[in-house]
Amino acid sequence: MKQLLSSRTLPIPDGISIEVKGRAVRVKGPRGTLTRDFKHLAVDMFLTEQDGHKVLQVDCHFGKKKRLASIRTVCSHVKNMFTGVTKGFEYKMRLVYAHFPININIENVGKKVEIRNFPDRK
User: φ and ψ at 98, to 5 degrees?
Assistant: First the structure.
């Protein structure tokens, strides 16, 4: 069953500027700029104000279950972009091998990881 209009709003935190052009979103904050393109999803995005605060509104017209689920997906991705430009992300990696030993070298002050003796690679 199709739903005529489904929408979701996402409040924009202070210290963050956001641009929406079509379905491309650019978020700027103290830790940098992130850009993401949602052209593959059939949603409408635009900036509005609610109670004096800027809000990103994501709408979907005549959507079935799969298209309606994409609304929350877009909001979650944009919210993660807000986290990325304010707090940042840190990834920790653990390398595990079972039978064939591998060697790891970290180069360029932690920007490059070289894996040696990987199976089928010499």
Answer: -105, -55
